[in-house]
Amino acid sequence: MMTSNEQKQSNEAPTPELPDELVSDILTRLPVKSLLRFKCISKAWCATISDPSFIRRHLKMSAACRWEQNPPFLITRHSLDYDGKGDIGFCQWQQGTSEAWLVHSRDCTSYFNLVLFFPHCDGLVLVPTDTTAYLFNPATRDIVTLPESSHGIVPPSLRPIGFGHDLRSGMYKVVQFFLRSRDDEFYNGVEVCTVGDPAPPQWREIMADRWYTADPWVTAQSVNGGVYWIVHVDNYTGLEPHPRCLLRFGLDDEALSHIHLPSELSDPEDDDNNVDKSFKLSVLQGELCLTAYRARGHRLMVVWALVEDEASFVWEPRHTLNGMDPCHPIAFLPGTLLLWFYGKLCIYDLRSRELTNVCDFSWLRYRSHGSGELEPAWNSLPFFDVIPYTESLVPVGAHPA
């Protein structure tokens, strides 16, 4: 005869268990902060969340969903102490809000005075300073300090540098140019540092020859297994002729090639007449885009997209903006372009051709998690930038800074 407690237990339905595939699918839709906490629930969950295939699926889901509502942006900033010790921080901001949240801040062990740009890919941000270079994942708060290069006469912040994802090996690679002087002439070289390997990162020299120099003042962009720069207008390598083109570094074969700019941008009369022209690179909707600003009679800005046509590349005009000052498109939203005007973020309506100010970042303030007190953010900061942000679990390496 069963007791009342035994009878009650026998009548209870067994607790249903979700299939592992469904659990994994649910987890891919969660933010990184939650996933990092869930790794402590069990060894099975930790193994699932740490699995490279799960990390890629989570990244794909995060990238696909980030523009469905108010898109997130990462505000990259740095500040200096009086003794030159640097602080690098990342704040997350969403359109339509008046506050930005501090995601991660790091006091760097080395001293630096300058940070010019922030190349980014798959939620990772490269921070080259004038003393060394760092690779951050702000969402996981991981950081790796890249080793010093034995080459070069130009500090890292003035040396063309970029990074991206090698689709063949699945690894991330940092690529930089260096200069050496030989027989009173300058020679270019290229070196690569693979991050995420079990072994400590090291630079590998893969090319030491004359080549066109990339413009260090234009942030490199990475898309579809390649890193792209604009050729520097000052041709001090002695190569002739000096074409107007992009440099492309293939991350799989580690080969350098050049892609000519649209023929409409190669008017020799512009050079003779000192026509003001400037170029910016962006990745919009998964395409490498070139923004060309030209001031001759009237101000004109055209956004071109680079389309791969079998074994070649073709430029296709995407958008034309009239009467615009130089700016940098950083995101494409339905029917609009999001433009960065050196301290201001604006929306350009492609149909009505109206420009609307979204946020003046000189007045933006940020609040650290857990702090109920607002603090001024930009009053004492010499430099910051705004980049589209896709948070990810992608590791930067097992070696601390």
UniProtKB/TrEMBL annotation:
InterPro entries: F-box-assoc_dom_typ3 (IPR013187), F-box-assoc_interact_dom (IPR017451), F-box-like_dom_sf (IPR036047), F-box_dom (IPR001810), SCF_F-box_component (IPR050796). Residues 12-58 form the F-box domain. CDD domains: F-box_AtFBW1-like. Pfam families: F-box, FBA_3. This is F-box domain-containing protein. It comes from Triticum aestivum (Wheat). The lineage of its organism: Eukaryota, Viridiplantae, Streptophyta, Embryophyta, Tracheophyta.
